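In response to a reviewer's request, we include the raw inputs and outputs for one of the modeled complexes. The four entities were modeled together in a single run.
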Amino acid sequence: MSRRRYTADRMDTGARAKSVGSPPEGVFSPIPTPFDADGSVDCDGLTRNLGHWIAAGLHGFVVLGSAGEGPLLSEEESMTVLRAARAAIPEDRWMIAGVGRHSTALTVAAARAAKKAGADAALVLPPYYYRRVTSEDALVAHYRAVVEGAGMPLLVYNMPAYTGLDLAPSAIVRLARLEGVVGIKDSSGDLGKLAFVRREASPSFSVLAGSAGFFVPALAAGASGGVLALANIAPESCLRLWSLARDGAWDDARELQGRLIPVNEAITRRWGPSGLKAALDVLGLTGGAPRPPLESLSEGGRGELTTVLRRAGLLPASEEVR
Amino acid sequence: MSRRRYTADRMDTGARAKSVGSPPEGVFSPIPTPFDADGSVDCDGLTRNLGHWIAAGLHGFVVLGSAGEGPLLSEEESMTVLRAARAAIPEDRWMIAGVGRHSTALTVAAARAAKKAGADAALVLPPYYYRRVTSEDALVAHYRAVVEGAGMPLLVYNMPAYTGLDLAPSAIVRLARLEGVVGIKDSSGDLGKLAFVRREASPSFSVLAGSAGFFVPALAAGASGGVLALANIAPESCLRLWSLARDGAWDDARELQGRLIPVNEAITRRWGPSGLKAALDVLGLTGGAPRPPLESLSEGGRGELTTVLRRAGLLPASEEVR
Amino acid sequence: MSRRRYTADRMDTGARAKSVGSPPEGVFSPIPTPFDADGSVDCDGLTRNLGHWIAAGLHGFVVLGSAGEGPLLSEEESMTVLRAARAAIPEDRWMIAGVGRHSTALTVAAARAAKKAGADAALVLPPYYYRRVTSEDALVAHYRAVVEGAGMPLLVYNMPAYTGLDLAPSAIVRLARLEGVVGIKDSSGDLGKLAFVRREASPSFSVLAGSAGFFVPALAAGASGGVLALANIAPESCLRLWSLARDGAWDDARELQGRLIPVNEAITRRWGPSGLKAALDVLGLTGGAPRPPLESLSEGGRGELTTVLRRAGLLPASEEVR
Amino acid sequence: MSRRRYTADRMDTGARAKSVGSPPEGVFSPIPTPFDADGSVDCDGLTRNLGHWIAAGLHGFVVLGSAGEGPLLSEEESMTVLRAARAAIPEDRWMIAGVGRHSTALTVAAARAAKKAGADAALVLPPYYYRRVTSEDALVAHYRAVVEGAGMPLLVYNMPAYTGLDLAPSAIVRLARLEGVVGIKDSSGDLGKLAFVRREASPSFSVLAGSAGFFVPALAAGASGGVLALANIAPESCLRLWSLARDGAWDDARELQGRLIPVNEAITRRWGPSGLKAALDVLGLTGGAPRPPLESLSEGGRGELTTVLRRAGLLPASEEVR
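The model returned the following structure tokens for the whole complex.
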């Protein structure tokens, strides 16, 4: 399959370049973690994929997030993935490591290890297992300890669909005031909350949309960018959404987002990481099987997914897909 | 309190004028229902309030919605309110009647009665009491029967916070294809869903944001307008949000929406109709007590609310409020 | 189909007879409301069904509850049903009327009307539409006003699956202390809560299990009886569960309940009122179509249901069913 | 504080003795994990506590469950705790290890390690992080792989309050048919479900109530015993509940359970592991601080808790507590 290549000057899409003191801005992809046939981490596949996304001009990457099956890896495997990713990600692009753990101490340890492996920042889920007996004060204390212990910037990760915990606007604003907490990835899709946080937090606080499903409206609400599973599948289109929004071309942005939504649904809500990996396979990148209990898509599912990709213009109409 | 008055040419804010065959577009307020000291409907207060909002230029009104305590009124009282409202609302503005009931037959009857009282369209909650044993097919059949029986256009009303039922995107798209179903008011705040519906439904299908909390991003996602409790309190500002968004002045729109969000929170999520009515009282309009089990705000609550209104610039800093 | 008949001395199953000052105790059925082919209330069918259940020895009946499609009827129809039911229900059996409405005033009115139609007590859902802005104090005030206004005993109806509102143990205990609030029907299945209420409320406060799915353990936890949709289908078996539990024959009770659970699932969680009515049809009683948006069971569903009834021993193995 | 001591013949409370091929039965405590002042595992405290509970006659122990802060420990610490516990727990009592992880591979590894450390069985949470995209088939495959890989019996752990995933009755019955899956700990409190599983699964399948809040009714519904946080605080009373139920003395059982419910609430729903540890401190056992983000009880909370313990008769009325 022929695919257009982009040079690094795609970074001139208007996002602030990554630099000391600037929070993340622009389009990030939460990269999947490919596995070998025997189930171990496939670093070559990871590197190959990253080469593609870097060339496309993405502003940075989340490694070991939900799309990356982070919760399914051992601590050792996590380090392997982070090191391989950093080796492939140039210094001028963000590498943000997913490091959520249930205890404060384990989260600090994971963040430190991630920094040692080259991460620029940590993406930290709230400790959700005991959420029913965890006060807002305890949450704030947790994040304070993590950011102090990590020695690098931290982004809060609000992901209620997976954690069962939807951070309250007031809690987010408190977290945003902690030294070193530079942003939030919000996957709740609650744009009223996003707008509230955008207003109440410092202008330099980075508010990143957690899904392409609401990326354009989030930008209209003042988001600083997005961490989009879709950016793994359609990085150029996601960057174009970003550019269009910055240029005020909202009609075009909306039209393009609308076209991509069925793809986004397929790789997030409907099939999760399994769908994302199958789509990468269809597109000629390295997907492969997810780690159990996640399952590979069935033949039928793969056929449906191919149709969805083709309809969105991500595959030539006549193309043979493997 | 002195308040600027607007003439009807405020309608030139860019919304299509109400006309046969055009679905609702622009800024609508879900008006509260004032009660006398003895608890009966206060038609004079209703008329007075409407005069204010009409002069401000709102494109139309939802009568007997959630903000209007519709579920707390008898069938007879509902008719009284609709008739009084229609007498006050000029023909060139939308009057949309909330008519959700638990059975298809009762909903049809309520819609017919509303039409007789002068409503231009019906806003119909899904029948939610038996939602766990109601199929999507049954939902579609319900709406089909209602729109056919009502003899006037119908808007779907998705309000999961109150009904416990969040209409699936696929269900909404099916409903949007029914003859006479001209739009949806969506209060879920799920902008990914809104964008999906915007794309999948006919361009003439009206998608109205159900809360000012996400009005600007909803417009960016292609919404046709909003039904905003906040428009009862700050109609000019809500119209300005609409104009700014239409002019592509997203930064200004965002800034203005941000300023209004604390007010919106107070009159929706935090205090509901009780907060809305208290705010009207503070602003010199007719609020009064809500109907039990809803309670009037405490002294303390009223004080907080006044502060919120003042901070948002809706009250002069030095004003004496009653 | 031949069916054994029971005489009224079946009342000697150990429940206190209905009398002034005694709260409800024993096995109650929430009766369905049959409709004619044209959709109007079928009073003859109602009377016929009641004759069967009364002969079986049930201790009383809930009319216009969730199983009775109460929320789908107009106020006038509600009165028709209550009057017809009272004409058929002897004075020594309880007739409890479902009267939940969203406002305090409408609930009081409905309770008064029900009393006039002969109800012995009212079963009152919490006002749930505005549950997110309704305080526990407001809930208590609502029930106080209703019980005072109704002029007859009141039972609280906790039904979170339908209302989205699960009354807190502390709230239930406060309600139990109101003069005239004589019991609760709890359909949550949370037996820890039931045991807590049993302990904290007066011994004379009636705690009725809301489903046969947990009737035996509820009795073990101190419940006073149950309001069981299953009692419409298998009244003798439900009375036997009650007797066995009173006699301490828990193993037999458990065994019998286990046998009935698939039937109970079919007429509650799986198919709701539609399943209940179809089962009545299969058993030769008057079921008929539910009121839309509820749908009649499909042919396939009816076949499955028949199998479930047969396996539970409620149909002869070889019986022709209509 | 003087406390009565029980000899091991308390095991004659009627539970089957632990033996090859017999599933767990009786009263189990999910033991807390004490930490030193520096936050590391306090093996001495653990041993001391276990001595007390063993002497009281508990039938077995869950180590590293939710009450034991299992999710807050590293893999190394987990092994330390399991080894120390096994050294203290005689071979005739069950040691069940909590080994839930998000991936199948990590869960297998944890189960194997636990077996090596001397566990008799594994208690396995469903993999819940990706629950929205995990099919029932995938769940079954997960448990099959774990029980095959572990080489020891497995109990399913249904804990919806923490995981956001409530296993469906049908799923539980499928799991119960897997070779080696010998039981379930169900903390949902849904007794209808418990009764259904009791009926559909093999009689030898062990159904353990997950909370003392519904222990007595669960026994009435056919439960095989319970894993009760309360058994750490009041082991003799929990054993007595078990004996009373076996003897059919349901009134006494109910009365005793009722007395204990406020204590149970305090150490579960209200304060979780923090409350449990504070209660141990008050009773003279080894509690100490929980691991952050969990917080120690405030002074006020500790006072309230002491009152609750005293009212339940677990502290002499006049006793000085530390």
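As requested, we also summarize the result in words. Chain B has a mean pLDDT of 91. Chain B is about 45% helix and 10% strand.
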